[in-house]
């Protein structure tokens, strides 16, 4: 049995909702820590600690899984990626070296790949082990 085309308004709402959630999660986990730590040997680290990034990823798993399991594929993938990209750009754009765009590109590609994988897994789980894009053969 084939399903009809996806409704564009709920897809758009899911994109905007996930983008907003991603921006808020970035601000909550990474937005407040803006200083680099100087080690005793003179090297600097930061500004983020590993636990902050892990917290961000774990926080975003729930809304991405929720959207993907309800077939809001564009929201799960594009909304989250757009939100994280905008947050990274705004957070890092004052970098004087000009290399912040490398980091923003890495955030964009990484979030796109990870959310796509999570979406495939959530969609397959929702369909009983089959990815949602497949049509079952007639019986």
TrEMBL record:
Residue ranges of the TM segments: 12-30, 50-67, 72-89, 101-124
Swiss-Prot/TrEMBL keywords: Membrane, Transmembrane, Transmembrane helix
Protein name in UniProt: Integral membrane protein
Species this protein is from: Streptomyces kaempferi
């Amino acid at each position: 049995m084939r399903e009809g085309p996806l409704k564009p308004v709920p897809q758009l709402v899911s994109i905007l909702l996930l983008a907003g959630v991603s921006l808020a999660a970035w601000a909550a986990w990474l937005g407040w820590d803006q200083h680099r730590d100087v080690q005793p040997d003179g090297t600097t680290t930061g500004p983020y600690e590993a636990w902050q990034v892990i917290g961000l990823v774990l926080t975003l798993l729930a809304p991405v899984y929720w959207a993907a399991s309800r077939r809001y594929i564009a929201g799960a993938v594009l909304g989250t990626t757009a939100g994280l990209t905008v947050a990274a750009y705004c957070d890092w754009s004052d970098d004087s070296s000009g290399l912040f765009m490398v980091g923003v590109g890495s955030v964009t590609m990484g979030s796109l790949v990870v959310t796509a994988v999570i979406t495939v897994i959530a969609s397959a789980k929702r369909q009983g082990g089959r990815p949602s894009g497949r049509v079952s053969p007639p019986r």
